Amino acid sequence: MEKKIAIAATSVAALFIGGTIAVVQLNKAPQDFAQCGATAVAGSAIGGPFELVDSDGETVTDADVITGPSVIYFGYTFCPDVCPLDAMRNAQATYILDEKGIEVTPIFISIDPERDTPEVVGEFASNFHERMIGLTGSLEQTDAASKAYRTYYKKEENGDPEYYLVDHSIQSYFNIPGYGVIDVFGHTETPENVAQRMECLIDMTG
Taking the model in full, what pTM does it have? Predict the structure, then answer.
């Protein structure tokens, strides 16, 4: 088991280091957002409509949950290292902005719906921030959401049926209604840096 975790961690790290630059379609000139340190560049759209299931077992759409500035992450609750660290970082950045009276909604979307039931993903999300929304769904629903955000994931082949790992991309996507995804945060970004960039972008788009 320890060997599997080490292999998965190495694979995820390699994906992050060697991954391509995220590209988004913006309603505002990308150079304007660059003033905030935004890393996204104009091009093919990232993000789009999705239909998933929330912690209450209710079917929701992107319009239901992305009602204001939101930071979105794709992962899974059994993830041994990267997912909880990134979820915590996004939650900490959200708390920093809470103290300034700026509300951002952190969203955690599972790419492992076989194990991540609505109850499981909801409890996982709420452990990091009381406003963090946990979403799951059918394999078709979660795959469609992942494709809309151009994320990568691959279930471990020939893994233990209960304890398998999932290799996946580790970016977080900052989405503001009317603008879409306007920034992408990597795994190494600090809570302070993420909060600062989100605040700047909210001011610019508000």
Answer: 0.84
